[in-house]
Automatic annotation (TrEMBL):
Residues 24-243 form the Dienelactone hydrolase domain. It comes from the Bacteria. One of its GO terms (molecular function) is hydrolase activity. InterPro entries: Dienelactn_hydro (IPR002925), Dienelactone_hydrolase-like (IPR051049). Keywords: Hydrolase. Pfam families: DLH. This is Dienelactone hydrolase family protein.
Amino acid sequence: MPVLDHVVPTTDGDCPVTLHLPDEGPGPWPAVILYPDAGGTRETMRAMADRLATLGEGYAVLLPDVYYRTPGWIPFDLATVFSEPDERARLMGMVKGVTAAMYRSDLDAYLDFLSAATEVSGDAVGTTGYCMGGRASMVVAPHRPDRIAATASFHGGGIASAEDPDSPHLRAAEIRSVVYVAGATDDGSFDDAARDRLEAALTGAGVTHTVETYPAAHGFAVPDNPTFDEAAAARHWTALETLYAEALPRP
């Protein structure tokens, strides 16, 4: 699997990224940005980017280090991070340290990079994200509706919060992408009220969308998460393949 290492300059510094490409078939390919969960960029996320690159006719998948503002950060062990108080505190501190404004600013830099990449075709870009990355995927959709054509969020938290003035659902009217959201039955960060709030916002804004609840726990799609669910993960790959096939044009 071809994987290219790059550094994307942003307004806050240099962001390491990897660009994952299909093994076979002629490029260039439509681009997809994969936003990692709270554990950040690590081997599991790189493997997921590899798999995403091979869906359908293939995609050029950008995987950014969303914690680049904390250089040299030590990777988390998802099997134990929530049971170890110090590690949990470190994790939550880093999660809170990446704001919606930062995601939006970084997206502009990622899109500039993708526009210049010879491996990438066209201007339309897809996104997907997990946990906090699911929120990031929803946050950036209304920021660059001129470029974001497909938006996916899996067990994303805080995407339809009644208390957060920066909640993505409040900017639904600015979204032009096709949206796919999958929550979990066991997930306090996206409960029934949040699901209904998001559904109402997207419907009211006329956004083409699907909002589903998988019979699984938060974290179901990420293999190194203790709550990983094989059946739910397989369902999520099928959903992504369908979404991008419909929403991301081929040259």
